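Hey, quick one: can you model this chain's 3D structure?
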Amino acid sequence: MKILVIGAGPAGLMAAYAARKNGAEVIVYEKMERVLRKFLITGKGRCNLTNAAPIDQFIENTMGNPNFLYSAFYTFTNEQVMEFFREQGVALKVERGNRVFPESDKSQTLADALLKACIDSGIKVRTRTPIQSLWIEEGKIRGAEDQKGNRIPADRVILATGGKSYPATGSTGDGYHMAKAADHTIVHPLPALVAFKTDDSWNPELAGLSLKNVSLITKAKKKKEYFGDLLFTHDGISGPVVLTAGRNLIQEGVVRENGEFKGVSFWIDLKPALSKEKLDRRILRDFEAFHLKQLKTVMKEMLPQALIPIVIEKSGLDPEIAVHQIDKKQREALVETLKALPIQGRGLKGFKEAIITVGGISVKEVDPSTMASKKVDGLYIAGEVLDVDALTGGFNLQIAFSTGYLAGLSASEK
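Sure thing. Here's the predicted structure for all 414 residues.
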């Protein structure tokens, strides 16, 4: 049996490996000059390849169609992924949040191991060979066609081209076009796990400022709060709380197709550990201790320097005023601003900066127990090209490995 895999990312190569181990002849086609281009830049080049949490927590951390992934997650678990890489000689370590990394802290270590496992097992990998379309006759896969119009025959085809995030790595949505031509439905792709664009004039002044243990508050259909670290950029905000909040806003249906927010308000709680009452008492103590000093000076006890003029301005106070002159009403305004600094969020940044893609080939048209297309006999689909995604923490790469392995296993069954 000959299997053609389109896309040499983690899903494609794991699919190829599983199919080859099951006895199939496997050839992988990749349009870029190197395999695993996006994989190499994940986790800032360190690659958080999976998570060491119990497998049921993978379902909990999956935002897009979690139930679809039960079979894949249990067919090729996180423990099996870790064992696979250990068998290839890669030492692994578990960090905060059960995130699994190579001990080398280099994604290249994992990429080399995965590619070597494939090559050593007899898989052929063709780079710089873009596939243009699927070759289908009478509802059955016959192979694929390259950009030069050459037809490549195969008994089964595994489509694993990835999504649209980080397009410079080759993820440009090619699989959506191929699948659509094969009568598959494409759920509109959106950038996700990505920074926000904001319209606040003071963003450039705060660029590079990192805030630890703050809360990002969003209000769309409901008010929600996300606790963690936040980073200001020259034109927006980023960091773990922002990435998680953005994915949830997509889930709420308040992100337009162009990535802009509709009817969403944002605030930052700069002191989430303190209630308004406790924060007021804290401020009052500082004011009493430094009663002759100006407000802008006393606020250094509480905030990073760059934030002080912004918080004072939003509170409607004079930065030059001596703190003993500040009355209770003015102090309450300061507390309100510290607990809810308003942010003018405009929308999600684009695919160039997004970690993942939300949307893709509808899972309603794919068999979750095999990853087989319900539209085309002999076509299998795996990885980010599907309408499945998860939060950060190694869960998205596990989706790629699990769906890829299941697709390869199923496609190679005689």
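One thing worth noting: The chain has three domains: 2-189+358-411, 192-271+342-348, 277-304+312-334.
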